[in-house]
Design goal:
The chain is mainly alpha-helical. It is built from 4 helices and no strands. It has a domain of about 110 residues. The N terminus is likely disordered.
Length: about 200
């Protein structure tokens, strides 16, 4: 028996494709057969693409596009909204301050009006008190004058009565004196004295 010898094609360990087929595929594409494996291993190396100079142009373009988009968003959306919020807040604060000033002015005006009313009421009260005192003084003066006039009339009447009583008393005293003198003379002389002689003696005395 003749032994058959089969020549096995070498197989690439990375992807399981025979080396001959890989060589044929490389020759069909115009790539040297020796560079296939090197190219396959070179795909995983080379570092990050953003640090390679050949990619910087596209990165700069995308950076400019993103910057333009962000600028438009900030200029047309965010900044106007922030400005509107800030303007609204400033306007609200200004309105609140103006309202507070207006209320303060109204309170001051009302306080001045109340103070004026109080001062007027005090002045009116003082005037009423002064008028009442003057009226009371006038009435008291009139009453005092009337009482003084009445008292003076009573004093005049009393003086007239006293003078009448005094004259009457003096008349009675004269008669008593004449009688007493007549009695004394009669006792001393032992002769009775007539009324004419007693009056004559009283006139001489």
């Amino acid at each position: 028996m003749a032994t058959e010898t089969h020549s096995a094609s070498p197989v690439d360990a990375s992807d399981g494709v025979p080396a001959a087929e890989a060589a044929n595929a490389a020759s069909d594409h115009g790539v040297p057969a020796g560079t296939t494996e090197a190219a396959g291993h070179g795909e995983g190396g080379g570092g990050l693409p953003q640090f390679q100079f050949e990619y910087w142009g596209g990165q700069i373009v995308w950076l400019l596009i993103l910057f333009a988009i962000l600028y438009v968003l900030f200029a047309r959306v965010f900044v106007p909204r922030f400005r509107a919020v800030a303007d609204t807040r400033a306007q609200t604060i200004a309105d609140a301050l103006s309202e507070a000033r207006r209320v303060q002015a109204e309170a001051d005006a009302k306080a001045e009006a109340v103070k004026s009313d109080i001062d007027k009421a005090r002045a009116d009260a003082r005037k009423l008190v002064a008028d009442a005192r003057a009226k009371a003084s006038d009435e008291m003066a009139k009453t005092q004058a009337a009482q003084d006039a009445e008292l003076s009339a009573q004093i005049d009447k009393a003086e007239v009565r006293i003078r009448g009583l005094r004259d009457q008393a003096m008349t009675n005293v004269g008669g008593i004196a004449a009688e007493t003198a007549s009695s004394i003379v009669a006792k001393l002389t032992g002769k009775p004295v007539t009324a004419a002689e007693a009056k004559a003696a009283e006139g001489v005395a």
